[in-house]
Design goal:
Length: 142
C-alpha cells in the first residue's frame, strides 16, 4: 500500500513537472514566433552613420532587385543584382564598422545582410519559376 502511494506521488510530481515544462516551452516558442518586437532594445541605439548607411544600402538593394527581375537566367539575374547594388555595396564595410559600435547597430547590420540574402534567394526562385514561361513565349515568337 505504501509503495503504491509513493509511486502515485512520484508519477504525479513527474506529470506536474512535465506539464510545467511543456507549457513554459510553448509560451517561449509562441513569443519567439509571434512577437512583433524584433529589434533588440539592449544598449544604445545605432549611430546616425549606421542608420544612414543602412538606409542607403537598402535603397541599393531595392534598385538591384528591380534591375535583376527581368533577367532570363539565374547567372544573369545574380550578375545584374550585384551590378545594381553597386557602388553602395562596394563600400558596405564602412557601414558595417559604423554599426559595430553598438549592439543594436550590429543587429541592424545583420538584419540588412539577411535582407540581401533573401533578395538573392527571391531572384533565384523567380528566375526558376518564370524561365519555363519565358521559353513558352519565346517559342511562339520564333
Amino acid at each position: 500500500m505504501a509503495s503504491r502511494r509513493g509511486r502515485r506521488i512520484v508519477t504525479a510530481a513527474f506529470l506536474i513537472f512535465a506539464a510545467a515544462f511543456i507549457v513554459t516551452s510553448t509560451v517561449d516558442i509562441a513569443r519567439g514566433v509571434y512577437d512583433e518586437h524584433v529589434a533588440s532594445t539592449e544598449g544604445p541605439p545605432p549611430t546616425a552613420a549606421c542608420v544612414e548607411g543602412i538606409k542607403t544600402l537598402v535603397g541599393a538593394l531595392d534598385r538591384a532587385v528591380s534591375v535583376a527581375t527581368s533577367a532570363k537566367d539565374e547567372p544573369s539575374a545574380l550578375s545584374a543584382f550585384s551590378s545594381g547594388a553597386k557602388p553602395e555595396w562596394d563600400a558596405a564595410y564602412g557601414t558595417e564598422s559604423a554599426c559595430s559600435t553598438t549592439p543594436q547597430g550590429k543587429d541592424a547590420f545583420a538584419a540588412l545582410v539577411r535582407l540581401r540574402a533573401a533578395d538573392e534567394s527571391f531572384l533565384k526562385r523567380r528566375v526558376a519559376e518564370v524561365a519555363p514561361l519565358r521559353r513558352d513565349v519565346d517559342a511562339y515568337l520564333r
